[in-house]
From TrEMBL:
PROSITE patterns: CARRIER. Residues 1-76 form the Carrier domain. This is Acyl carrier protein.
Amino acid sequence: MKIEEFVGIFASALDDLDADEVTAATAFKQLAVWDSLAVLTVTDTVEMECGVLLSGTDFAAATTLEDLYETVRAKQAR
């Protein structure tokens, strides 16, 4: 999976987010739509699409979508 695909997966998980609004460098915690429901929705979508379960620690350690992407890739490699 490429980073662009992951960004698309992230954007598709959040109804109020236009895919054109986000890039790999987006600080996702700063998005207006980012709240506790968004965490759950993104977690579920990433698990379904990528086969990886992100934890609260994973989200806390990440700043950008690229950080999350790298976490997903590392977990897929295990």
